[in-house]
């Protein structure tokens, strides 16, 4: 009988734990995407304005495309990168969050940069950060999203909530863990700072080419 060296067993266990954590994070994001579709449809059905209802259904249809991509990633993971225009991605996320959340979400006019990155990874990072900001801002609050620089690309997501770590328990748990893992894998820098007079600013720095460090190092 061949004995597997301790180092190899530990490596295999770490790989299994990492894969399990990645699957839990992906299922978390799939659940959020499904909830977003349901909320958009519910909002459209209760909307008296036909034009507004149609806009919300269009957002729901767009979200189903994202959901399909997430489900494909669960079956067949892919680390491929492609040119992604960031402003349209942010515009869609902001419109969805504004239509379904209690806070007002505003995308400020600015540059429209393109980055070479895995589009699903980018969506998951920004979606989780924006969702957390909306929950932190709460009813009557405001979330402001900006693109301030293009070399590298800097995205700001600012809420006027109580401040990082001072919101309702659990509001930032798995979502921020997912952000941390994905950002480290694709060389995207994510940081947080206090906002004056209240709230938090999430700062996302996206390089022009965000290749997967894990894939290149394999």
UniProtKB/TrEMBL annotation:
Reactions that this protein is recorded to catalyse: ATP + protein L-histidine = ADP + protein N-phospho-L-histidine
Enzyme class: transferase
Molecular function in Gene Ontology: ATP binding; protein histidine kinase activity
UniProt entry keywords in alphabetical sequence: ATP-binding, Kinase, Nucleotide-binding, Transferase
Pfam families the record matches: HATPase_c
Source organism superkingdom: Bacteria
UniProt keyword Nucleotide-binding present: yes
InterPro entries from the UniProt entry: 2C_sensor_his_kinase (IPR050980), HATPase_C_sf (IPR036890), HATPase_dom (IPR003594), His_kinase_dom (IPR005467)
Membrane-spanning parts: none
Signal peptide range in chain numbering: none
EC number: 2.7.13.3
Residues covered by the Histidine kinase domain: 25-210
Stored PANTHER family: SENSOR PROTEIN CREC (PTHR44936), SENSOR PROTEIN RSTB (PTHR44936:SF10)
Protein name: histidine kinase
Protein's organism: Amycolatopsis panacis
Lineage: Bacteria, Bacillati, Actinomycetota, Actinomycetes, Pseudonocardiales
């Amino acid at each position: 009988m061949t004995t597997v060296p301790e180092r190899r067993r530990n490596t295999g266990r770490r790989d299994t734990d990492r894969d399990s954590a990645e699957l839990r994070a992906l299922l978390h994001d799939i659940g959020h995407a499904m909830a977003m579709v349901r909320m958009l449809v519910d909002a459209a059905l209760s909307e008296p304005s036909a034009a507004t209802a149609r806009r919300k259904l269009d957002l729901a249809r767009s979200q189903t495309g994202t959901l399909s991509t997430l489900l494909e990633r669960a079956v067949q993971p892919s680390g491929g990168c492609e040119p992604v225009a960031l402003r349209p991605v942010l515009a869609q996320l902001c419109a969805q969050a504004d239509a379904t959340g209690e806070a007002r979400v505003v995308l400020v006019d600015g540059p429209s940069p393109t980055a070479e990155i895995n589009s699903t990874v980018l969506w998951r990072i920004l979606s989780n950060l924006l969702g957390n900001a909306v929950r932190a801002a709460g009813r009557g609050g405001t979330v402001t999203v900006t693109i301030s620089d293009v070399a590298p690309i800097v995205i700001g997501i600012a809420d006027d909530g109580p401040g990082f770590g001072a919101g309702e328990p659990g509001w930032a748990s798995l979502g921020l863990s997912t952000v941390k893992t994905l950002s480290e894998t694709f060389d995207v820098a994510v940081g947080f700072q206090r906002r004056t007079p209240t709230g938090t600013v999430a700062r996302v720095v996206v390089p022009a080419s965000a290749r997967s460090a894990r894939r290149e190092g394999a």
